[in-house]
Design a protein that fits this description.
- With 192 residues, the protein is mainly alpha-helical.
- It is built from seven helices and no strands.
- The protein folds into two domains: 70 residues; 100 residues.
Length: 192
């Protein structure tokens, strides 16, 4: 039990617990406080991974919780900012659709094959997460300090939407290739 409750996992849990506070601050119009919580969450994301690698304290729980915390923070931010009309709705739809597609696709693959597919992040997936974080961060900076991020937003939103879509298609392609290699024998055999 002690290996599960290590420093990296506690930092990840703090990031998960910060999400409601971030959303409350955002909805209350306390943009600077919301930006501070978002930045702190980003710092803990970098710290938990670095500490886990340096101290050799990686755990299965941490491997599952870390990307979950990132996704929940980003999805929550995009939904809230989409409702506030500070992020284009089309970008919010792309971000949410890709993640929903990944979750349902992974579930489908498991139900169909009864095997767990190892999910490894791709370069485009990491870039899309970085661009999503940059998009949310830029919007929060612009809300907290009006005019500071306005010029960056349109090209950043376009790039984020394009890379997020490409990453989603790449994950879908990888899932289909994996499915083709792991089809149950009765599906592969031609019927007489």
């Amino acid at each position: 039990m002690l290996t599960v409750l290590n420093v990296p996992n506690l930092l990840t849990l703090l990031r998960l617990l910060a999400i409601p506070g971030f959303l409350i601050l955002l909805e209350d119009g306390r943009s600077r406080d919301a930006l501070a919580v978002f930045v702190a969450a980003g710092v803990t994301d970098g710290l938990d991974g670095a500490i886990a690698r340096l101290t050799h304290t990686k755990t299965a729980l941490g491997a599952m919780l870390d990307p979950l915390a990132d996704k929940l923070l980003l999805l929550s931010a995009f939904i809230a900012l989409g409702f506030m009309h500070t992020v284009p709705r089309w970008l919010t739809v792309i971000v949410i659709s890709r993640d929903v597609m990944l979750v349902f696709g992974y579930g489908f693959l498991f139900m169909f094959t009864q095997e767990m597919m190892e999910i490894r992040p791709t370069a485009s997936g990491k870039l899309s997460t970085f661009l999503q974080l940059a998009s949310v961060g830029t919007v929060l900076v612009d809300m907290a300090y009006p005019g500071r991020g306005t010029a960056l937003m349109p090209p950043l939103f376009g790039l984020t939407g394009a890379v997020t879509s490409a990453a989603g298609l790449q994950y879908m392609y990888r899932g289909l290739l994996w499915l083709q290699r792991h089809e149950p024998d009765e599906v592969r055999r031609p019927t007489p």
